[in-house]
Amino acid sequence: MPNDHAIPGFYAVIPAGGVGSRLWPLSRADAPKFLHDLTGSGQTLLRDTFDRLAPLSGEQRIMVVTGRAHRGAVESQLPALEDLNVVLESEPRDSSAAIGLAAAILERREPGVVIGSFAADHVITGAALFREAVVEAVASAEAGYIATIGIRPTEPAVGFGYIHCGESLSIEGAPHGLLVESFVEKPDLATARTYVSGGDHLWNAGMFIARASVILEELGRNRPELLAGLLELAEAWDDPATRGPAVDRIWPRLEKIAIDYSVAEPAAAAGRLVVIPGLFGWDDVGDFASLAKLNSRGRASDLAILGRDARVLSDASSGIVVTQTKRVISLIGVKDIVVVDTPDALLVTTAEHAQRVKSVVDALKLSGSSDVL
Amino acid sequence: MPNDHAIPGFYAVIPAGGVGSRLWPLSRADAPKFLHDLTGSGQTLLRDTFDRLAPLSGEQRIMVVTGRAHRGAVESQLPALEDLNVVLESEPRDSSAAIGLAAAILERREPGVVIGSFAADHVITGAALFREAVVEAVASAEAGYIATIGIRPTEPAVGFGYIHCGESLSIEGAPHGLLVESFVEKPDLATARTYVSGGDHLWNAGMFIARASVILEELGRNRPELLAGLLELAEAWDDPATRGPAVDRIWPRLEKIAIDYSVAEPAAAAGRLVVIPGLFGWDDVGDFASLAKLNSRGRASDLAILGRDARVLSDASSGIVVTQTKRVISLIGVKDIVVVDTPDALLVTTAEHAQRVKSVVDALKLSGSSDVL
Predict the structure, then answer these.
(1) pLDDT score of B231 more than 90
(2) Which residues are listed as membrane-spanning (chains A, B) (predicted)?
(3) Distance between CA atoms of A246 and A258, rounded to whole angstroms?
C-alpha cells in the first residue's frame, strides 16, 4: 500500500473534550489544551492531529466529538472537516459516551467500518512510523480485535499508564501485534524502571482502533444501559429534527466512564485486545514539566519560551515561560521554573511541582474564582 | 520642649529623586519608589515622610526637591506643601546638588537656618524616638556640627553602610551625640557581625542635619565649583523670571556627586560630624527581600502580599507577591519567591537574588526596552 493513500475503510475519530487542568492557566474551559499551539508549530494541537490523520483516513473521513462551546473554534481550525462529522456534546460525559456515540453513528452510516480514536491534544512526531502502526492496527481491527498502539518507553515515566504485552498474535497485516495482558496504572519510579528495562511494557497512549461494531459489542457486554442510550441517540442523529430532542433527553443521563474501563480493560481480560508497538515520538503534554521538556529539546539554552509576543529576560538555564501577553518577563536566579502568564491569571511553579497545578484549579473552583477557569 | 511642637528654627528637606532600580518593575522612572505605598499604610512613602517631619518642622517648613516629571504627583500627594518649597530638578544631578541647592535657597531666605535632609523613600517606625533623635541632631547643628542619625543595628545587615562612632561629645541638648570616626562602606557578613557585637557601629541612614551655612561651607571647601553654581542658582531662584534661565544654564553642568563624598566624609575627617544614635525602626527598603521582611513581620503566614486587588493562591510559606493588577496569581511549591506583577512587566526571582534586580534594569536599558523602565 503506498504511503500517501488513505487506508481503505478506515475512519478517524478525534474526541476533543478534556480541558487539560494541569496546564492551567493556559488551558481552561474556553481555551482547552487542544486549541493551543504547544510545540511552536504555528497551529493548534487539534489541527496537528487532523493533519496527521487526514492522509490515513481522508479528510472526509474524520469525525470530531467536542463540546458545543467549542464548535466555532473547531470549525475555524478545521475548515476541511465535514459538517456532518462535527458531533457536539451538550455537556462532557467522558470518553465512553464520546467514542461510543461516534461508533454508533458511523456504524449506522457505514456498517462494518473500522474506526480509530486519537486524542486531540497529544504531540506525535514521525509520520511514517505513525502510519505503519495505524496500518497494523487497522489490519488487527479487521481480524476482529480491538487494537491499541503502545509507545516504546524512552524513559521510566511515572506520569503515564503502561500496557503489559503478551505473546505475538501473528495477525495477517499486523506482524508486530502482541496480545495485551493487562493495562497498568501509573507506576512509581522503581516499577517504571523495571518496565523500561524489562521490555514488555509500553506506554498507553489511549489510541483505540476497532470495528465500530466491536466497540459497541464490548460496550453492550459491560455497560448495556450506556449502549442502549448511545444507539437511541445515533438513530436520531442524522436527522436534524430528531437530534436535538434526543440529545436533550438522553445525553445528560449517560454514564460518565472512561473507555479504558468500559471497553479496553474488559476486552483485554477477554483476550480480544492487541497492541501494536509504536516507534514514533509521542507525548501527552500532561503538565508544564513535559511541555518544558518538549520545547527545550535540542536548544542551546534550556529555558523554553512559548508565546508569539514573548519578551523574556532571564538567567534561568531550565524551565519554561509560556506567555500570552506582551509583558516583559524577567527571571533572576530561579531554576527549573515554570511561569505561565495570561491576561487574567499567572502561575509560578517548578517543574517538580507541575503535576500539582490541577489542585490549584480545584481550589479556584471551591473559592468561586471560576472566572479564570 | 513639648512633644507636639515644632523644633524652633528647624527646616526639613526631602530629596525625592531616586528611582529605586532594585524595586523594578514596581519602581520605575515614572513611578519611583517614594510614590509607592510599600508598607500597606494606605499612603505613599513620600507622604509618610512628610507626615513624620511636619510635627518637627511645621508643614510650612518642609522643602521637597524632586524631578520636574514628578511635580504633579508630589503636589497631589502633599497638598499642604508650600508652592515655594517645591524645588524642581530639570534632570537628576545626585544628592550634593539637590541638598546643596535647598541649603543655598533656605540660607538666603532665612540666614542661620538649621536644615535636616531625610530620604523620601525610607520606612521609619517610632515617632517619639525619631523626634528625640532629631531634637538632639538640631542641638548639635546649632553647636556648629553636621549631625547625622545612625541606626542601632538589629542584625548584621550587609546591604547598608555603617558609621564608626567615636567619643561622646557632650554637646548641650545632645547628650547622646558621638563623634563620627568614619563612614564604612557595605561590609561582608563576617565584618557586619563584628560591627553588631562590637556596639560602636551604627547603620548610615543618610540623614544629615546642620546649619545650611555649614553645609555650604563644607561644599565650598571640597567642591568650590559646585558651590559656586548652587549659590548662583539660589540667587536666581525666588524670582520666576530669573529661575528658568538659571536652571537651564547652570543645572546641567553641576557635578554629580553624593553628599556623602562632598560633605559628610570630609566633615568627619575634620572632626565636624556628630552622630545621634537612633533607636527607632528604620529600613531603606532597598530591595524586594527587605520589602518581604518588612511586610511579613508578625503575620501568621510568612508570604507577604502587597496589592489592593491582590488575588493570590499560594502554598508558599515565605517570600513576597507585589501586584498592581487584578490577575489571579498562583504559586505552587516555590520558596522565598519574589513575584512582582505590573501591567507591562513581570519579575520572578528569590529573596536571595533580590539585589540583582538592578542588573535587569541595566540589561533592559541596553536592549532598548525603556518602555518598561
Answers:
(1) yes
(2) none
(3) 22
Note whether A330 contacts B360, CB cutoff 8 Å.
Answer: yes
| Amino acid letter, B367 | S
For residues B30 and A207, give the distance between their C-alpha atoms in angstroms, rounded to a whole number: 56
Assigned C-alpha cell, B199? 556596639
Percent of chain B beyond pLDDT 70?
Answer: 98
Bond before A245 cis per omega within 30 degrees: no
Q: What is the pLDDT of residue B1?
A: 45
Cα(B111)–Cα(B213) distance, integer angstroms: 8
What is the 8-class DSSP label of residue A174?
A: B
Separation CA A103–CA A117 (nearest Å): 10
Residue A2 has pLDDT above 80, yes or no: no
Q: Which CATH superfamily is domain A10-283 in?
A: Spore Coat Polysaccharide Biosynthesis Protein SpsA; Chain A (3.90.550.10)
Every domain range in chain A assigned CATH 3.90.550.10:
10-283
How much is the ipTM here? 0.87
Instruction: Tell me how close the Cα of A367 comes to any Cα of chain B, in angstroms.
Output: 10
Distance between alpha carbon A180 and the CA centroid of its chain, in Å? Answer: 20
Beta-carbon separation of A328 and B372 below 8 A: yes
Task: Give B337 to chain A, closest Cα distance, Å.
Answer: 9
Q: What one-letter code names the amino acid at B265?
A: E
Q: Which residue has the higher pLDDT, A303 or B115?
A: B115
Exposed, middle or buried by CB within 10 Å (0-12, 13-18, 19+), for B253? exposed
How far apart are the C-alpha atoms of B119 and A277, rounded to whole Å?
A: 71
Q: Which residue has the cell 547622646?
A: B176
Number of other CB atoms surrounding residue A261 within 10 Å = 15
**Chain A residues in contact with B357 (beta carbon < 8 A):** 332
Nearest chain B residue to A329 by CA: give it.
B346
CA distances from A336 to A119, B179, B333 (A): 28, 52, 12
**What is the DSSP code string of A304-371?**
EEE-TT-EEEE--SSEEEEESS--EEEE-S-SSEEEEE-SSEEEEEEGGGGGGHHHHHHHHHHTT-GG
